[in-house]
């Protein structure tokens, strides 16, 4: 077995550890050779390996890039692999380690900071776009969904089988389940059923040794970690088994906009005091952006109240009139439809499109450059705080700026902080997302927009969660702290880690240490291994010299 006979000296190990040579053309050739020689692949791998000289390289890389900021990144992968089966993932993991390449794992490519396809070290992208099988088991209300599927594809497949089964996940249909479910996942069913991650009941993951593990074999701690702690620190998630939830055959939606002149501040004042205590069947989130006031041509802020109610309009109206009368909701503003139609509606398909649009992996409004940040709120923001926020919307950079308030409460209050890695549960009124999109190319435009959102974020500091100021992993934000390019101490990683995970960060680091002590699966915000630098050097030396006897990966196939 020629493939297994690499021999590493201690010196080589040190070189591997400290100096990934960015120009090592031959290391990626050796990597590709290693893939081709990998003894356990079931399908031929050569048709899914794209080096930079392959004519399809750019289209394969670009197709899932969702943020134009990272479109022309200078640090592109030396190779892209789009696995057709588990053995291709195993080969990629084993061969990248062998040839000193990092890997980045991509499912839907929505990572806000492009971490699934940009890196500063020589790296390989494992893109799961070919692994998107979805098996719906209506009888048991479960689904096996492969990581490369989008939530839109998942919603579509569920709706093909039932109009009273659903899954609580995100609003944008193009989001990939690989990243989304491993980082939380919220949408209009969160108040009733929690996060996507709360509804995962099994998973298949390929670990650093190339072993394919399920819930039983990965152990309780790893299964806990990947349901909110992000998959990328632990291995390549191949598929999830999820529990479907029930929804009535008729739901009701509305989108009602109020400007500042129409008492938006007053309505938000009241909303903050009721939104998290409403009936679990009712979610009303708020989306703010700026608008040219029709009255006087001045700029104003518009707050759009967007709602899903799990029931008929006749039940919804009295509920809103009782709890949020200031909104002045009218019967004609409410639309009854099926749950799957509400998915289209909230995603912006309001022209009677067929549900087939959920299978389209291109975002409805095309791509922009964007940056977003997040916060959690425990106490209502006083009116003076809101009034100080509005002027940010009148700045030039805010033309496509937005702020979203998503209510908590309901099911979120019933889940303990430690049940999953995501600790933001009871006691929060709502979650904030700040975002800004732009179309103008170049660094200057980028700096202006980044500066705008960062100043807005600074402004809201007194009104949001503190010690630490929390953030949502799926709204990845490298401003809150990053790892070194290489060894990162636990305390350095804690800066960003406790913002996403609170006290759960410690447990995530322990899991990481058990499953990937050498920290192969790493990025700017990956969970650190607690194995110290010196110990790690010795250990890596040991592991590399043992590679000659590497065990055969457990090679059973995914069931979906
Ligand atoms: C337009 C848009 C709308 C969004 N709407 C919502 C929303 O409504 N609700 C919400 O909660 N979030 C939303 N998000 C955020 C979204 O949940 C995250 O960006 C999510 O991580 C995307 O998953 P992905 O697979 O598409 O992204 P990717 O960029 O492919 O991956 C994101 C991260 O997960 C890792 N990862 C991906 N696949 C795997 C895998 N198979 N195994 C291990 N690690 C993996 C990546 O390496 C990366 O670190 C939205 C994002 C965008 C851009
Ligand atoms: C990427 O680079 C190409 C070629 O230079 C250019 O035409 C294109 O506009 C760039 N795209 C973005 C999003 O910057
Ligand atoms: C439902 O689950 C049971 C137990 O796991 C299984 O035997 C059965 O085949 C499942 N039903 C379907 C339709 O797959
Ligand atoms: C604005 O909303 C507040 C509720 O916060 C309410 O008390 C007030 O009467 C409303 N003002 C108008 C003009 O509707
Ligand atoms: C939510 O709606 C369902 C019917 O779809 C109903 O059975 C349930 O009682 C409602 N929940 C609450 C809290 O009103
Ligand atoms: C607002 O008005 C300005 C100038 O009249 C115009 O350029 C801009 O497109 C308008 N914006 C919106 C959202 O209508
Ligand atoms: C428009 O805004 C300016 C500055 O805020 C204000 O002075 C002016 O009165 C406003 N115009 C109208 C018609 O409201
Ligand atoms: C997918 O959606 C994009 C954006 O809305 C659209 O341009 C494209 O035509 C759609 N593709 C298909 C196959 O419908
Ligand atoms: C935000 O606040 C931080 C810390 O107070 C400061 O370093 C930074 O410059 C501020 N950013 C902007 C854009 O104002
Ligand atoms: C592999 O194992 C055999 C016997 O167990 C041993 O003799 C040999 O030295 C090992 N090879 C390496 C490279 O560690």
From TrEMBL:
Entry annotated with the keyword Cell inner membrane: no
Domain FAD-binding PCMH-type stretches: 73-247
UniProt signal peptide: 1-25
Needed cofactors: FAD
UniProt keyword Metal-binding, yes or no: no
Cross-referenced InterPro entries: BBE, FAD-bd_PCMH, FAD-bd_PCMH-like_sf, FAD-bd_PCMH_sub1, FAD-bd_PCMH_sub2, Oxid_FAD_bind_N
One GO biological process term: cannabinoid biosynthetic process
SUPFAM superfamilies: FAD-binding/transporter-associated domain-like
Superkingdom per UniProt: Eukaryota
Pfam families in the record: BBE, FAD_binding_4
Molecular functions per Gene Ontology: FAD binding; oxidoreductase activity
Protein name per Swiss-Prot or TrEMBL: CO dehydrogenase flavoprotein-like
PROSITE patterns referenced in this protein's UniProt entry, alphabetically: FAD_PCMH (PS51387)
Entry's family note: Belongs to the oxygen-dependent FAD-linked oxidoreductase family.
Keywords: Disulfide bond, FAD, Flavoprotein, Glycoprotein, Signal
């Amino acid at each position: 077995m020629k493939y297994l006979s690499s021999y590493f000296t201690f010196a080589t190990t040190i070189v591997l550890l400290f100096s990934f040579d960015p120009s090592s053309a031959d290391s990626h050739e050796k990597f590709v050779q290693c893939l081709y020689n990998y003894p356990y692949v079931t399908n031929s791998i050569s048709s899914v390996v794209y080096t930079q000289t392959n004519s399809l390289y750019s289209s394969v890389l670009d197709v899932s890039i969702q943020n134009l900021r990272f479109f022309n990144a200078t640090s592109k992968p030396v190779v892209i692999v789009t696995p057709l089966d588990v053995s291709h993932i195993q080969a990629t993991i084993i061969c990248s380690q062998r040839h000193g390449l990092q890997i980045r794992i991509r499912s839907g490519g929505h990572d806000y900071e492009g971490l699934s396809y940009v890196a500063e070290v020589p790296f390989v992208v494992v893109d799961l776009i070919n692994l998107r099988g979805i098996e719906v088991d209506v009888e048991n209300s479960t689904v096996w969904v492969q990581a490369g599927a989008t939530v839109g594809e998942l919603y579509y497949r569920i709706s093909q089988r039932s109009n009273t089964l659903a899954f609580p996940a995100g609003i944008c249909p193009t989001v990939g389940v690989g990243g989304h479910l491993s980082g939380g996942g919220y949408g209009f069913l969160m108040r009733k059923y929690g996060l996507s991650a709360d509804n995962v009941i099994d998973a298949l993951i390929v670990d650093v040794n190339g072993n394919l593990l399920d819930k039983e074999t990965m152990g309780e701690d790893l299964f806990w970690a990947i349901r909110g702690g992000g998959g990328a620190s632990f291995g390549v998630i191949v598929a999830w088994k999820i529990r479907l939830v029930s929804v009535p055959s008729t739901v009701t939606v509305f989108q009602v906009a109020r400007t500042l002149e129409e008492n938006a501040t007053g309505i938000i004042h009241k909303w903050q005091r009721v939104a998290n205590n409403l009936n679990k069947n009712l979610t009303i989130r708020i989306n703010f952006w700026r608008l040219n006031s029709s009255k006087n041509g001045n700029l104003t802020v518009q707050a759009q109240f967007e709602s899903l109610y799990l029931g008929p309009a006749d039940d919804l109206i009295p509920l809103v009139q009782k709890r949020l009368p200031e909104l002045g909701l009218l019967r004609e503003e409410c639309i009854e439809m099926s749950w799957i139609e509400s998915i289209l509606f909230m995603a912006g398909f309001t022209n009677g499109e067929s549900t087939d649009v959920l299978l389209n992996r291109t975002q409805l409004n095309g791509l922009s450059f964007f940056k977003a940040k997040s916060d959690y709120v425990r106490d209502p923001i006083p009116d003076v705080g809101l009034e100080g926020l509005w002027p940010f919307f009148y700045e030039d950079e805010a033309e496509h700026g937005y702020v979203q308030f998503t209510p908590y409460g309901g099911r979120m209050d019933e889940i303990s902080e430690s049940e999953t890695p995501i600790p933001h549960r009871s006691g929060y009124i709502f979650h904030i997302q700040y975002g800004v999109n732009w179309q103008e190319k170049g660094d200057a435009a980028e700096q202006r927009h980044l500066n705008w959102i960062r100043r807005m974020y600074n402004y809201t500091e007194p009104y949001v969660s503190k010690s630490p100021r929390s953030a949502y992993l799926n709204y990845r934000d490298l401003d809150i702290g990053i790892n070194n390019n290489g060894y990162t101490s636990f305390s350095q990683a804690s800066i960003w880690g406790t913002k996403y995970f609170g006290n759960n960060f410690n447990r995530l680091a322990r899991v990481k240490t058990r499953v990937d002590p050498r920290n192969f699966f790493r990025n700017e915000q990956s969970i650190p291994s607690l194995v110290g630098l010196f110990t790690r050097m010795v250990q890596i030396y040991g592991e590399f010299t043992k590679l000659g006897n590497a065990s055969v990966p457990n090679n059973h196939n995914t069931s979906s």
